[in-house]
Amino acid sequence: MGEIKGVTRLVGGLIVIAIFAWVLLPVARAYSLVSAQHSDSSVPTDLGVADVTFESTDGTPIRAWLAPAKSGAPAVVLVHGFKTSRAEMLPWARFLHDAGYNALLLDLRGAGRSGGGTIGLGATETRDIVQAAQTAGEAFRTDHVAVLGISLGAGAAILAAADDPRITAVVADSAWTDQDFQLARLGFIDIGAFRLPLPPLGVPAVNAFVGADVTKARPLDVIARISPRPILLIHSADDDNATTPVEGARKLFAAAGEPKTLWIAPRGGHVGAINASPAEYRARVLDFLAFALR
């Protein structure tokens, strides 16, 4: 009899632990999704960069490199992807610098050497980009400041330009339309062939960690507000990233106002068109900037 009671208690305890883990799992996954990814980047020696710090619009310290080409020339703010850093944008900075454009490469909040304990999934990065554009304009003495972003930075660039008319133009490479897919994945876990639903705590947890409503970070809903400022959308036909299907680029293009351009590169994968078709990529971006920042 005693053994039966012992087994019963053990089973009951395991059930309680399983329920507790089931309830906490979406919160843990939410934290993993938005947790900061800080890293250090060696200062490039070929661009004459200055390492600077400025405060985002909410006071978060943002680290950046200023890559000057010529005082008074137009500037381009370069915005990296998910949980990477400004170093990712060096290939863009180099060809823009060679073409005579000043550049600012920033570490978004929660990434690189910038402050912040979480990635905002686009809901808070707009603050960093808006302040970066202002910093670039002041540092390089120009009113012509474009933003070029890739992946997470592409959608965030659209959101920032929709909010701030001082951003002159946007280049969005491999942009996302919304965070619905990313957030929906917090509601279940796959165990072999079985999909286990989880408590609806993932999205509230993300919003609590980030300090903003991530569900409202929707480039597709606001891209039209950028017009009449020009936008160039770039996407690879073979982008297999689940959050940035090529259909999303077509939807963004349809929703955008004029002037707008869409280039779907035949290959390259996610943010890889610059490597798959380097000459055409650079020519298209430079032709667009020459028009947009004239």
Tag the structure with descriptive keywords.
294 residues; alpha/beta; Rossmann fold; two-stranded parallel sheet; 12 strands
Q: Could you describe the 3D structure shown?
A:
The structure is a single chain. The protein is of the alpha/beta class and about 290 residues long. It has two domains: about 1-35 and about 180-210, no CATH class; about 45-180 and about 215-290, 3-Layer(aba) Sandwich (Rossmann fold), CATH 3.40.50. It is built from ten helices and twelve strands. It has helices at about 1-35, 90-100, 125-140, 150-165, 180-185, 200-210, 220, 245-255, 275, 280-290; strands spanning about 35-40, 50-55, 60-65, 75-80, 100-105, 110, 145-150, 170-175, 190, 195, 230-235, 260-265. The strands form three sheets. It has an eight-stranded mixed beta sheet with strand order 2-3-5-4-7-8-11-12, with helices on both faces. Strands 1-6 form a two-stranded parallel sheet. Strands 9-10 form a two-stranded antiparallel ribbon. The longest helix is centred in the N-terminal third of the chain and has 33 residues, at about 1-35. The mean pLDDT is about 95.
What is this structure, in a nutshell?
With 294 residues, the chain is α/β, with parallel strands linked by helices. The chain has 2 domains: 66 residues, no CATH class; 209 residues, Alpha/Beta hydrolase fold, catalytic domain (Rossmann fold, 3-Layer(aba) Sandwich), CATH 3.40.50.1820.
